[in-house]
Design brief:
Elements: E1 3-5, E2 12-14, H1 31-44, H2 48-58, H3 62-71, E3 89-93, E4 100-105, H4 106-114, H5 119-133
Antiparallel strand pairs: 1-2, 3-4
Amino acid sequence: MEEVVCRECCISKPISDFYVLPNGKPYWCCRSCKRTRHRAWKKSHPDSRRQERLKRRYGMTILDRANLISSQNGSCPGCGKYLLSGRGTHIDHLHGTRVVRGVLCRHCNLILGLVNDDPAILENLAKYLEKQIGPTVLT
């Protein structure tokens, strides 16, 4: 069995412990070292992947998203729940064009997705609920 020396840990390991590049050669470090390096990089760059995804999908930065949340008084326009700038917030957008409408909490975003962004369905559901349990009183 062929062995390769990992240039990170300097240990000779079987080639099966290495990722194989498209050209057929093993990656310069073993799987274990690559995984450790990747975890360390993710820990030292917590917003990099999120920033990249926001930019690619919606053309926004993390600061743009924070400003959008701030323009909504820091709350979800659907339920009024306080939104933190990081996890649990979802960019609401028109699916055909990806034009951003706002930032929603996870639950409200899921609800809109389940009804295909159709206000008529939401109105019918509200009428149904009022019929079943009576009108809700907002305080």
